[in-house]
Amino acid sequence: MKTKYIFGIVIIGAAIAIIISMTGDASSYVSFEEAKVLSDKGFKKSIHVVGVLPKTTGGEIIGIQESPDKRSFKFQMVDENGFKQQVLHANPIPADFNKSEQVVIIGAYEGENFIAKKILLKCPSKYQEEPEFAS
Fold first, then answer.
1. Is 36 part of any domain?
2. Which of 1, 75, 79, 109 has the lowest tally of Cβ within 10 angstroms?
3. Does residue 110 belong to any structural domain of this protein?
4. Considering the entire predicted model, what is its pTM?
5. What's the Cα-to-Cα distance from 36 to each of 6, 30, 48, 85, rounded to whole Å?
6. Which long-range contacts (CB under 8 A, 24 or more apart) does 56-65 make?
7. Cβ(64)–Cβ(73) below 8 Å
8. Residue 42 counted as domain residue
């Protein structure tokens, strides 16, 4: 066999291996209950939980407590099943955290608390189309 064919087969094999390894890291969203079960079973990868921040009737977010040095904070989050959980994050409060419609936290349970390594926010878009009015 020619070396260029062997080289091509090696490249294709490497691409397949990369694709398979990337799909192994893909994570779907789970509830806090499922995240706790995974954690108790020894699941070591990051877990994605999606939810919302509890708000008062006036729209004020409740349950946020910032550390005195403002380097970390904890907050309450309600998952899609309605379960409320305290979440700890070892970084400052993200910009627009109070404006978020939905929150995705990536992390794992440590004891009874969920430790978020990353927080992704879904905020109202300032780029939404304005309705056109007929003249």
1. yes
2. 1
3. yes
4. 0.70
5. 47, 10, 12, 11
6. 61/97, 61/98, 64/93, 64/97
7. yes
8. yes
Q: Which domain holds residue 53?
A: 28-122
Burial class (CB in 10 A: 0-12, 13-18, 19+), 61: middle
Task: Answer whether 91's CB lies under 8 Å from 84's CB.
Answer: no
Let me know if residue 129 belongs to a domain.
no
The pLDDT tens digits for 96-134 are 888 888 999 999 998 888 999 999 998 766 555 555 655
DSSP for 49-63, written as a single string:
EEEE--B-TTS-B--
Tokens 């990337």 label which residue? Answer: 22
Beta bridge partners of 108: 115
CATH number for the domain spanning 75: value is: 2.40.50.140
The count of domains in the chain is: 1
The gap from C-alpha 88 to its chain's centroid, in whole angstroms, comes to 13
